[in-house]
Amino acid sequence: MVVWTDFERTTIQAIFSKIDYAVVGQAAFSRCLTVYPWTQRYFGQFGNLYNAAAIASNPKVAAHGKVIMEALEKAVKDMDNIKATYAELSTLHSEKLQVDPDNFMLLGDCLTIVVASQLGKNFTAEVHAAFQKFLAVAVSSLRRQYY
Description:
Blueprint: H1 6-18, H2 21-35, H3 52-56, H4 59-77, H5 82-85, H6 87-96, H7 102-119, H8 125-143
Helix pairs in contact: 1-8, 2-4, 2-7, 7-8
């Protein structure tokens, strides 16, 4: 079980209350597909992912980015039970979609970059640490079914 400080809880909730899921989700997911092109293999049905411009303007990428952010919102709403919250999602990604679990960490890194750019000087080292802890718990919960 993860122990959250009051600062971490309020910080994570504040981050998610300030960001536009559609904008941040699209930017983070687009960045992940561009920087780590091997992650594209799971999204063949998305159409044109041939370059950064095509990825950034792809409506299916934008829609899935928002889905990712909405899934993270569920974790924010139940921070004491993220593993249970993500149990079905973990099973889906491991058994049906067979996603490489390392990709969750790569996406988390891209999300951190985008959130930091959105929050600017408010993304202090302490805020960054809280956000990284949250993402580490979310990624661990998604990877749970793999082991």
